[in-house]
Every structure is written in structure tokens, then in C-alpha cells.
Amino acid sequence: MDIVLITTVIASLFLVIGVAEPLAARLRLPYSVILATLGILIGLAAVFFLRTELTDALNPVAEAILGLPIRSNVFLYVFLPTLLFQATLGMNLRRMLDDWVPILVLAVVAVIVATLSVGYALSWASTLPLAACLLIGAIVSTTDPSAVVSIFRSLSAPRRLARIIEGESLLNDAAAIALFGLFMGFVMLGVPNPSLGDALSRFPVLIAGGALTGWLAARVAVWVMALFSRHELAQISISVALPYLAYIGAEQSVGASGVIAVVAAGLTLNLSGPGRLPPQAWTNLREVWDLLAHWAGALIFILAALLIPRLLEEVKASDVALVGVVILAAIAARAVILFGLLPLLTAMRASPPVERPYRAAILWGGLRGAVTLALALAVTESFRVPVEVKRVVGILATGFTLFTLIVQGTTLRMVIRWLGLDRLSPLDEALSRQVVAVALQTVREDVARTAENYDLSRDIVRSEAKRFGERLDGAVKRAEASADILDRDRITLGLIALAGRERDTILARVRERTISARMAEQVLSDADRLIEGARSDGRSGYMRAARHIVAYGRGFRVAVVLNRRLGLARPLARLTADRFELLLSQRLILQDLGEFIRGRIRRIHGRRVAELLNELLARRVEMLETALEGLRLQYPGYAEELERRFIRRTALRLEEREYATMREDGLIGSEVYTALMQDVAARRARAEVRPRLDIALRRAELMKQFPLFAELDARAQKRLARVLHTRYVDAGDIVIRKDSTAKRVFFIASGAVELESAGQTWRLGRGEMFGQLALLMNRVRRAEVRAIAPSTFLVLDEDRFRRLLRRSAALREAVRASAEKRGIEPGDLLSTLPGDGVREASG
């Protein structure tokens, strides 16, 4: 075929892609529906011109269109890795983990239920073997919810809902393709039928092998990309190669799932890339992948649609009835999941609530697309599949896809309008009025500065300022005078605005590199969690999200177990250092929010709401300072190292800005500027390296950290180490309860605790002890002791502590000091203990 003609056809397809998006917006139809329709029309036109006798002039073009190498492998090896990889790069993984239950339900359980439902319905309604019917069920079970996601975003639907749909779109392809491979083995001729047990036993290999392959490929790619830190195009080129090498390596070399490998590679790059690559390089890499995925998604739809006329050539009346069976079974299976299983999971608190109108929209928006057609094409291409099975698979998969695109896709907006999802709630209406008022206040200040800078005519400025002021006053009054908004809702609106301001501040700090790229995604994710918490549950949701920010997560607890049981300290050290940096970044952000409350929030919502928001902000600051103080006590000096690093980064940013100003003013030329900026970049790279945190916890070494034990000789320390017991507690755990009997003394090896007694609090950190006063005074404990950081204690029982106290002058002095600090006369405590001589501590 003429290469010029093929190039012309491909260029024309890109022209169609360019026209399809504005056409979809004008017709208010999903983009995928427009692409599929244009693809079908192009395919029909090619067949028509090739067979008509009206003209032969367009025959070469028609032959070129119909002769395009559209094979299932093209979809699975060229387009699918691109779409999956880009989807993983654009996901907020930390927030996805919050909703992993409904995502897995929709992506895996729903696929299995749809496969079984369609398979058994077809088996009942047709003469096809059950294996072929289940194969068709697997092919049509994968959804393309991009249409619903785009419409939900345009309607300002809850972000959690959009995340659930995005997570489903990422994972259900892998589940459907795995089931497709399982049942394909049962329908192929000349291939020994696997037993169901053998087929199911391959699933762990498919999943684990694919995940390991993708993770390893991504780790190598990130390592290489980090070596090329000054060569952005090289980094982007490596990222383009990564998903294809992972897919091919998993499929051809390991015999695992290529889809899982691509997803694992994308997730790994998503998690590690921002911390290893320069911020601008990461941003540009994401933009390149957005463009590649846009092209790949559009081409896969158009090329798959070109096949539809060919796949429907041999359709019969009975086939139409079977398409109806597939439609009813697939919709019924999805309805069971959405209206049966999801509410059950919500009642069990395993899933966030999804309101009924949104579930109805998800049900009707379960469009099928290119992946379904690609899998059907793979069946029709196989010479091992019986002819009748190939024909029916092609017709049913294509017919069902056309139904979802033409019927469901074109009516989706109407359904959403009928469900009332296109109308703002009273709270959202009030929020929009608040946003207008806040925006206009900012605009007025900026316009005033602009008018002053450009020295405009005072009369013009005065007249325009009057007009703008009238509009601003009206917007503020409308925001204040919402009679249908309760005070509780005003507080919610204020919290949403406050969290939004926090997010904007974070973005500004990330752009100026005050907050490191390593922490950018997490602090933005925390800000999103605050916004969503305030929207869903008001004040309680906001504070619940705030507590989640400073809490120790599941990953931290796993890292602690790995360190204690297996001696793997690196994960715990990394997460602890991350926590240090996160808390310092949060403290930096919260300092800027007080002025926003006093200025914007108070003007719109009044003094009472502003005071309440200030109180909530003060509680957040207190929680943050408590968590940070716990880490400081646990690892003294490390916070100061991070603060020095912050100051160095800030100084470099200011230095960089000064050089840019000098260049703009013509004080330095481009060569000098380039040399100066290269020097700044080199110093910035050194400043970005985070100081190492040593968290190794060995009992013998821990003892050496205590000045209390320093005067004991090596033999005595060794014997004491044998009788000391190690105890670990999580942050928030009660170590000693009030009114309990004193039997042990605790030495803090790592971590920090807070003592509360008679309304007073004390905080103790590494190297200090507690519990000794109540033990020596032979009374019940009057203080409650709570860990404010994950802590490790060395515990000594009463007899051995008294023996050690008689032998250690340093320990007696420490007891005296702690008693004086608590207002207790120390003489009474130690009067029964003779001498200050230091003798060997016995067990």
C-alpha cells in the first residue's frame, strides 16, 4: 500500500480527533460517543465507495481505510499500555486508598458478577456452550466510565465519586482481561482444556508476576531518570518506554499479566517520581502523557469503530434477541452491585455512602468501548475458535457496545438532568455566592494596585472603582443574606473556604519550592481531605480529616513491625523523616490562615463564624505542635536539621529571584545569568537531600544513651540489660492509668509521653524516666501517662529499681530532680536508701 496514502489516512484521523472534541461539546454528548459515531460513519463510507458503481475515484482511499492494520494486538500492545499508564500517573493514590473497598467492588466483584450473569443468561437463551457464553460475559463486563467522569466533573459531583469511577476504569480492564484469558482456553480447538482449578491457580502468578515485573521496571527507570536530572527530554523518553517494556516483559518473558505490570509500573512512578525528579520535569512529563493518552484513546475508539460494519455483516434476527439478553443481564448485574452490595458495604462502614441518584447515573453510564471491541476482535482473529462462536462473539460484543454508546451515551445527560444532578444544592448555591464575593474582593485589591502602578487617570479610576464597589457590595450582601442557609451551614461554607485557601497556599509554596516536591502530593492530598470532610460532615468532618493528617497510618504501623520483628529499619526511618517534614510543612501553612479568617471569612460570614473557625484552627495547631513535639523529644536535633534545610531552600529561592530581576533590568547578560543559575541549581540539589535519620533501637546501645546508666561499668550494664524489658506503644496509647498500682519504672528509649495530673501536664522524651515517684512513695499513681509518639520503653520492676537506686548516685539525683519538678519533697523519697556509693547492679 502506498506510504503516502497511509500517511494521508492517519493524518486525516488526527483531523477527525481535533474536530470531535468541540463537536461533542456543542452537541453536549460524551466525547467517546462522537468518536465512535465518526468511526462508524468512516467505515460505512469506505465500504460504500468500494462497492458502489457511482465512482471509482475514492476506491484507493477506501481500500487504505479498510486495509489499516487493525488487529487486536495493536489495541492491546500499543494503545492499552498508554491509557493505563497515563491513568495511574494522574491518580491521587493516597485518596484512592481511602476508597479502595468500593473501587475493588466495582472493578473486580462487579466484573465477575457481570460475567456470570451474562454467561448464564446466554447459556439459557442460546445453544452456545457455557464456556463460550462466559467468554462473551467477560468481554462485555469491562466498562469505559470516562463519559460519566467527565460529566460528573462538569456537574461538580463529589470528588470521592469521581475517584471511585476512575479507580474502577483503571482496574476493571485487568479483571476482565484475566477472565477473558481464562475462558478463552476453554473454547479454543486443538488446545487441551484446562481444569478450572488449574486455570484459577494461574491467577496468583498472573497478578503477582505482573506486579513484580512492573514494580522492578519502574524502580530501574526511576533510578536511570534520576541520573539524568539535567536532561528533561531524556527522562520523558524513558517514561515513554517504561509501560511498553513492562507490558511485553510480563506477557512474553514472565507469563504474567501485562495489564497488571503497566498498572504497577505507573503506580510506582507516581509514588516515587515527584521526589526523585525536578518539579518542572515531573509536570512536563505528566503533560506529555496526557497528550499521548488523549491521542491513544481517540485512535482506539475510531479504529475500533471502523470494525463495527465488518463485525455486523452476518447479523441475524436471532442475534438481535441475544443482544437484548446481554443488555438486560449486564444492566441487572451492575444494578445488583450498585443497589445491593454498595449500600450493604456502606452500612458496614466499609465504603463511603454513594447517594441513590449517583448510583443510578453510574448504572446508566456504564458505557462499553474499545477494550470490549478489541477482545471481541481477538476472538474473531483466532483460527482455533469455532466459526460459529467467532461470529456470535463479534455480533453480540459489537451490538452491546453500540447500545451503550448510542442509547445510553446519548441519553446520559438527560438522565442526569432527570435525576436532578445538574442542579446545585442550597449549600452549593451559597458556596458559589461566597466564592464570587471572595474573588471580587481579591480582584478589587489587584485592580487598585494595577491602577496605581500604571498611574491612570484618577477620574477614570474613581468611576470604575465605584461601579466595581457596587457589584462587590451586592455580592457580599447576597453571600451574607442567604436566609435558607443555617448557621451550621455557614460554618461548613467557612471551613470549605478555609481548606480551599490552605490548598492555594500549598500550591504557592510548592511553586516557590518552600515545600519540597517529595511532600507536595501528600500535603495537597491532605488539603483535599479537609475540603471533602467539611463538605460531607461540616465541622466534625473537617476535624476528623485534621486528626487523620497528624495520625500515624497503617503504613507506619507496618514499618514498625518490620523494624521490631525483622530488623528492617529503613522503611520506618523514611516514614518518620517524612512525618517530620510533613508536620513542619503543615505548621508553615497554618501560620498563613489566620489572616484569611480575619479578613475574608469575617467579612462574609460574620464575627461568630470567624471566631469559631479561629478556634478550630487553634485546635489544629495544638494537635500539630503536640505531634511535632513528640517527634522532637523522640529524635532531638532532627527537626532543627530540617528547619535549617528549609532556610537554605528559601535563601536559594530568593537568590534565584534576584538574579532573574537583574537579568530583566539588563544588569547581567544571558551568559552570566546562565552560569549563576547553574550554580544555584547545583546548590539546590544539595539542599534538597534530606538529612539521614538514625532510628536503630538495640537494647544494649539504648542503655548507653541514658546518662543514668553511664556510671555503671561494662559488666554491670550488661547484667542490667538482661533484666530490662522492652515495651513498645503506639501514639495515643495509655501507658499508665490513673489510680493504678505502682510496680514498674519506665525509661524512655525512644519516643515521647505526656503526664497529666491535677490539671497539669508534663512532657518527657528520650533518656528520661517516669513511674518512679509513685513506686517510691508506695501509693497509687496520681498521673495518667499517654504516649504522644510511637515509643519504646525499657521497663524495670520495683525490686531491681530499688537495688539500682542504692548503687547509682546519678539515678538518685534524677529522682530528686523529678520530685522537685513535681513539687514533692525529695528527702522523704530517698531517706531509706543508704549512701551514694556506686556498686555493681545485680540482677
From TrEMBL:
An annotated GO cellular component: plasma membrane
Protein name: Na(+)/H(+) antiporter NhaG
Transmembrane segments annotated in the record for this chain: 6-24, 31-50, 70-89, 101-122, 128-149, 170-191, 203-228, 240-268, 288-308, 320-341, 361-380, 392-416
Species: Roseovarius tolerans
Pfam families, per the entry: cNMP_binding, Na_H_Exchanger
Keyword Transmembrane helix attached: yes
Membrane topology annotation: Multi-pass membrane protein
One Gene Ontology term of the molecular function aspect: sodium:proton antiporter activity
Compartment(s): Cell membrane
Domain of life, per lineage: Bacteria
PROSITE patterns named among the record's database cross-references: CNMP_BINDING_3
Gene Ontology BP term (one): sodium ion import across plasma membrane
Keywords: Cell membrane, Ion transport, Membrane, Sodium, Sodium transport, Transmembrane, Transmembrane helix, Transport
InterPro entries (alphabetical): Cation/H_exchanger_CPA1 (IPR018422), Cation/H_exchanger_TM (IPR006153), cNMP-bd_dom (IPR000595), cNMP-bd_dom_sf (IPR018490), RmlC-like_jellyroll (IPR014710)
PANTHER family linked to this entry: SODIUM/HYDROGEN EXCHANGER (PTHR10110), SODIUM_HYDROGEN EXCHANGER 7 (PTHR10110:SF86)
